[in-house]
Amino acid sequence: MIFGVFMTEKLYDKDAYLKEFTATVTGSFKEDNGLFKIVLDKTAFFPEEGGQTPDKGTINDIDVKDVQIKEDVICHYLSMDIPVGTEVKGVIDWEHRYTNMQMHSGEHIFSGLVHREFGYDNVGFHLSDNTATMDYNGKLTKEDILRLEMLANRVIWENRKITASFPSSEELEKLDYRSKGPVSGPVRIVKIDGVDLCACCAPHVRLTGEIGLFKIVSFENYKGGVRLNFLSGKRAFLDYERLNDIEIKLSQSLNVKKEDILSSVDKLLKTVAELEYSNTALRRKEVESLCKNSSSGVLFLEKENTDLLRFTMDELKKHLSCVCVVFAGNDAEGYRFLAEYDKEGLNELLEGFKGTFNAKGGGKSGSIQGTLYGKREDIVLFLKDRFENMFGNLS
Ligand SMILES: [Zn+2]
C-alpha cells in the first residue's frame, strides 16, 4: 500500500465495457520525471499487467500517459496535478482498449486449445501496440499451428460466452484452470465456454464472435518451445487490408492475375539471373581486353561486384609483374579497391590511402582491400607522387 492510499477498486473487473466513470482522487504525488502520479478510489483504466500494456485515455481531459499497479493500488501518470478530494471523470480510449480485448481473448482461445491438444503451457505473453507474442513450453510444427488456428477460428464462429469470476478457494480447488504460476489472493478466472479456464486479470470480450478473426503470422523456436506472433480482431483485419493492398499493387505492376503473382515473380527472378549471367560474361570480356592493354597496374572500373574485382586483378597480374590496384566505383560514391603485390610496400600504400582518402580496409601480406573516398584524378596523382617506383608507367 502506498502511504495513506488504499487499494483501488478495479471497475474493469466487473465491466470490461465501461468506457467512462467518475471517481475521487485519493492520492497525488509529484514524480522525479515531472509527471504526477494520481490515485483514485476506483478506476476503469487497466494498468500494465500480465504482459499487456496499459490503457490510454483521459482523466478530466488530461491525457493519461501511463498506468501502473503496485500492491493493488493503481497509479495514473498525468502531466498535470489533480488535488486529493477532487471528483474526476475518466474516459477510456475505447478503440485501443477494445482492440486489446480482442487480442487477449484470441490468445486465451489459442492457449486453451494448445493446452487441450498438446498439454503445453502458455509460459509467456506480450501484448503491446506493435507486437503480440505467445510462448509455449513445447514444440509445434507448421501443420500443428495451421490446425490449431482453424480450431481457434471455429471457436470464434461458434460465438461462445466469455465470463470472469472470483471463485471461492473451495471452488477453485476443484477447478482445472491454466495459470502462469502460483497466484495469491482472490483468483480471477476467465472462462470460455467449453474451451478454456485461465487465471487472468485483464478485460475480455463477452462473446468469442467479437474477436472476428484469429491469425498466427509467424513462429520461431524459443527456449526449447515455440514463440508465435499472432493477430486477432481489428488488428488481424487491418493486416489483411495491408496484405490485400500489396497483392493488388503487385498484380497491377506485374500485369498478371492475383493467383499468378508468385509464378510471375519466379519467372522474373529467373530472367534477372540470366541477364546478370550474360552481363557478367560481357563485362569479363571487356575487362580482359582492358587488362591486356594496360601498361600500368592501376585500373578504374565502374561499380562492380566482388567477383569481377577479383577476376580483374587476376587478369591484370597475368600481364604485369608490378603492384596492381583495381578501383571500382565513382568520385561521388567512393571506390572499392583491391591491391596485390608480392614485394614490400602494400602496408605503406594502405596507410597512405587511410591518411589521404579516408580509407577503411585491411588485408594480409600480398593483398589489401577496402573502400576510399576521393576523385579519380587525385588518386592517380597521389599514386604518381608517392608510389611511382612501385607502379612504373602511370599516365
Ligand atoms: Zn489473460
How would you state the average pLDDT, rounded?
A: 94
**The CATH fourth-level homologous superfamily of the largest domain:** Threonyl-trna Synthetase, Chain A, domain 2
Largest beta-sheet details? 6 strands, antiparallel, barrel
- What is the element string, with H for helices and E for strands? EHEEEEEEEHEEHEHEEEEHHEHEEHEEH
Beta strand %: 25-35%
Structural class: alpha+beta
| Terminal-residue CA separation | 84 Å
* Overall number of strands: 20
Radius of gyration: 33 Å
User: CATH class of the largest domain, please?
Assistant: Alpha Beta
Hetero compounds: zinc ion
Tally of helical segments: 9
Portion of residues in helices? 25-40%
Keywords:
6-stranded antiparallel barrel; Elongation Factor Tu (Ef-tu), domain 3; Diaminopimelate Epimerase, Chain A, domain 1; 395 residues; 5-stranded mixed sheet; 3 domains; single chain; binds zinc ion; alpha+beta
Compile the SSE list and pairings.
Elements: E1 9-10, H1 11-14, E2 20-30, E3 36-40, E4 42-43, E5 57-59, E6 62-70, E7 73-78, E8 87-92, H2 94-118, E9 122-127, E10 132-136, H3 142-157, E11 162-165, H4 169-174, E12 189-192, E13 196-199, E14 214-222, E15 225-232, H5 234-254, H6 261-292, E16 298-301, H7 306-319, E17 324-330, E18 334-340, H8 346-357, E19 360-364, E20 367-372, H9 376-391
Parallel strand pairs: 1-4, 16-17
Antiparallel strand pairs: 2-3, 2-8, 3-7, 5-6, 5-8, 6-7, 9-10, 10-15, 11-12, 12-13, 14-15, 17-18, 18-20, 19-20
This protein binds zinc ion.
